[in-house]
Amino acid sequence: MARTTRREFMLGEGSGTGSGPQNVHVGVGPAHPAMHGIIRIEAELDGEVIVGAEVEIGYLHRAFEKDCEQGGWNNAIPFTDRLNYVSPLINNFGYASAVEKLLGVDVTERCKYIRVIMSEISRICDHLTCVGASAMELGAFTVFLYMIKAREFLWELVEDVTGARLTISYGRVGGVKADLPDGFAEKTLKALKQTREVLDEVHRLLTGNRIFMDRMVGVGALSREETIGYAITGPLLRAVGVPYDVRRAQPYYVYDRLEFEIPTQKDGDNYARYLVRMAEMEQSMRIVEQALATIPSGPINVDFEGRAIDPAAYVDQGKQGKTEGLLLVPITLSPNLEGQQRAAHRRVNVADKRVVLPPKETAYGSIEGLMNHFMLIMEGYGIRPPAGEAYVAVEGANGELGFYVVSDGSDRPYRVRCRPPCLPPVAALHRMITGEMVADLIPTFGSVNMIGGELDR
Amino acid sequence: MAILAELQRRFGDAIVEIHDHRADHTAVVARDALLAVLAHCRDDVALAFDVLMDLTAVDYLKFPGREDGPRFDVVYHLYSITHNHRLRLKVRVDEDDASVPSVVALWPIANWLEREVWDMFGVRFEGHPDLRRLLMYEEFVGHPLRKDYPISRRQPLIGPAS
Amino acid sequence: MGVGSFFTGKLDEAIGWARKYSIFQYPFVTACCGMEYMATACSHYDIDRFGAGLPRFSPRQADVLFVVGTISHKMAPVLKRVYDQMTEPKWVVAFGVCTCTGGFYDNYATVMGIDTIIPVDIYIPGCPPRPESVIDGLMKLQDKIAAQAQRY
After folding, report:
1. CB contact under 8 A, B144 and A63
2. With 90 as the cut, is the pLDDT of residue B160 above it?
3. Rounded distance, CA A396 to CA A420, Å?
4. Cβ–Cβ contacts within 10 Å for residue B111, how many?
5. What DSSP string runs through A33-101?
């Protein structure tokens, strides 16, 4: 009797296997251990081979677009944090840029550099999480622990700047919430050094690892034509050899002044996506280093030169109406719970007071600041972009992150549409997994890096 | 602006309106000509819009000046990798005849994007192979992103309604 | 107090002590809070110190259901089903403000707190909660487990 090979057995071709009408339907998700994110895949299996798949999403639909229409233009910022919650800073800046385009304002040089630095740190965090989680699902738990350790170094930086670890709400229409803290550059360089060490270790653990390669090489591949037809951007598009990156194609902020490469691969399989992500992290670190070396000091500091005073006295004087000149004084109240030991973050934004929210220290510490805040937040006041529409794309961690905003000339957005970078790959997921084995679903899903908040909004 | 002039020259009256607000090339297309214009945009060598970046809709029910006009705009954002340029095409539809020809045959991604627009706005796509809700569940009644759908109207599957 | 109740009282204490240090959790991760859940579970914050390091991804093998992240109306039946599949004794932790009250997602899509669907033992607020507050919540859960009347 002829021996049935494993492959024949799986494909139902050998003796005693049968084929055809015995297909089994397996529902994977929405709550499944190897699915980081909630999504349902209804797979039709012939033996162990997936012959058809249906993907269902929407389990994390949180009405982002409807919520944005309810408040002022700046009130949408916290909702954008929670779109791609692994790299919220990029969402903040993308949305802010779209509103700025609608308003026709340009942010200051220093602010642009800060946005670039924080975006790239976010991108590294995103790739770390993606690679770490998908490696964990293949059994490489060590890699996951290492990657999260590296992410923790970067999150400490994010926390220093924004006051929060994850949902940071740091972007503002017309600027950012606060300036970089003292000693940020040194801390960043140190964190990047530590991150590089972790990436080195991970390279040694994964790149070339037999088990990892077996699960990744040639698995989940998508052709170039299909990738483009499904409007897939970001690492997945670069993994099929198309060097499209919004940062290079339509440079925004100061990306045209910084040197970086766009890593590409040819095969378009999971392994190529992994290599692209690993290489991109290195490029992001290069960008951060260059930006830190060339960041200008902004005009923003001019407003805030002066003597430091005790915050209690500052508030007292404000209450007594002695407000003249107070706006020009930096106060020593810290947003980061370090009390009075630390210099207050200075203000970074455009000069136009009718656009930018005042810093928190000012809003709570002086009557002018409070009035300024009030006038921007109160219903019927606030930012009023002229009626019209604008689309702005930035390079999110998963590809082109677009915001399409429509204004009717009032103080709240008429329509905010987010072009989610991870919806196209998930829409094409059934193409990637059909014809593969059922176990290959896991690494393919991992390499897609689906983020529920952004996918379902 | 060259793209818009070219489209106008080629399609004449089918291009209802063009504008360049904030340097975003935008053309409003008549619904009958939509498929022809989109196919031309994709296949013409000089345009070569090979990516349908985004497909969405806007409900203009409460927009000043549009209260009586066509209620929905279906918005297509195109991008060309070859030429690195963008174009926004819009088509206006009325509430009682809210349907647009489907472009799934041109770009496969339109399948999900059109399902989402149907789900959120109730605009139908003629010729779509499988027009079901994408984000909400089948039991859900109404289209939540319409301006007349109150944000807090819940339709829970289990648990209390309030 | 009879001799019998003295012994069962001591036995309760012993079982409570054992149970509080062998928490097998089922992380029902849906959204943003999952990132902080990951951070808490990994080496930096290390919840293994509390005997809760090993997640079980089968509800039948888990004691504590961690509901991490927003629950939408589409997801609610799934959550209920996972909860029903868990065996007694079981506890539920609402991780993050969305699971406690719905948070700032007050709209047509989201459930206003998971306690409208399943009973909750510990609420950990925050959007998302920092790992420190997660650990605080975990320790409160341990106290609750140790102090309650044990069924066995």
Report:
1. yes
2. no
3. 9
4. 21
5. TT-SS--EEEEEEETTEEEEEEEE--TT---HHHHHTTS-SGGGHHHHHTTSTTSHHHHHHHHHHHHHH
CA distance to partner chain A, nearest, from residue B10 (Å): 25
Residues of C at the B interface, defined by Cβ within 8 angstroms = 73-74, 76-77, 80, 106-109, 111-112, 116-117
Q: Which residues contact B32 (CB under 8 A, 6 or more apart)?
A: B14
Residues 36-75 of B with CB under 8 A from A: 50-54, 56, 58-59, 62-64, 75
Q: Taking CB atoms and an 8 Å cutoff, what residues of chain A touch C35?
A: 85-86, 129, 166
Q: Which amino acid is at C13?
A: E
Mean predicted lDDT score pLDDT of chain B: 89
Cis peptide before A420 (omega within 30 of 0): no
Instruction: Name the residue among B149, B150, B155 with its Cβ closest to that of C73.
Output: B155
From B152, B158, B162, residue closest to C108, measured CB to CB: B152
| Residue C127: pLDDT over 90 | no
Q: What string of DSSP letters covers A232-266?
A: --THHHHTTT----HHHHS--TTGGGS-------S
Give the pLDDT score at A298. Answer: 56
Residue showing tokens 């999504």: A39
Judged by CB atoms closer than 8 Å, whether chains meet at C76 and B159 is answered as: yes
- Classified as helix, coil or strand, B5 is helix
Q: Which residues of B touch C108 (CB under 8 A)?
A: 144, 149-155
The per-residue pLDDT for A238 is: 92
Measure in Å the smallest separation between the Cα of C55 and chain B Cα atoms: 27
Please identify which residue in the block is written with the tokens 């690679």.
A131
| Of the partner residues C31, C82, C105, the one whose CB lies closest to the CB of residue A452 | C31
A-contacting chains (≥3 CB pairs under 8 Å)? B, C
By Cβ distance, the residue of C73, C106, C107 closest to B156 is: C73
CA angle A165, A169, A171 (to 5 degrees): 120
Chain A residue numbers with beta carbons less than 8 Å from the beta carbon of C128 are 166-167
* Structure-block tokens of residue A200: 């080195």
Which H or E run includes A103?
helix A88-103
Closest residue in B to A406 (Cα–Cα): B58
Q: Is the pLDDT of residue C90 over 80?
A: yes
Q: Read off φ and ψ for residue B16, nearest 5 degrees.
A: -75, -35
CA distance B144 to B159: 20
The rounded average pLDDT for each run of 10 residues, N- to C-terminus, in chain A (457 residues) is 55 52 79 78 86 90 89 86 89 90 81 90 92 88 90 90 87 80 90 93 89 88 90 92 90 90 90 92 92 73 34 53 49 42 42 64 77 72 81 91 89 89 91 88 88 87
Closest Cα partner for B71 from B100, B92, B88? B92
Give the long-range contacts of residues A151-157, CB within 8 A, separation 24 or more.
Answer: A151/A125, A151/C39, A152/C39, A152/C42, A152/C44, A153/A191, A153/A194, A153/A195, A154/A121, A154/A124, A154/A125, A154/A128, A154/A191, A154/A195, A155/A125, A155/C39, A156/A187, A156/A191, A157/A121, A157/A184, A157/A187, A157/A188, A157/A191
Exposure letters A207-236 (e unless 16+ CB within 10 A, then b): eebeebeebbeebbbbeeebbbbbbbbbbb
User: How many residues are present in chain C?
Assistant: 152
Using alpha carbons, select from A257, A195, A184, A268 the residue that is nearest to residue A225.
Answer: A268
Among A62, A129, A166, the residue with its CB nearest the CB of C110 is: A62
Q: Report whether B49 contacts B78 (CB < 8 A).
A: yes
CA distances from A345 to A157, A361, A401, C5 (A): 14, 9, 29, 62
Average pLDDT of the segment spanning B79-85: 91
Pairwise CB contact (< 8 Å): B134 & A58: yes
Closest CA to B73 of B38, B26, B112: B26
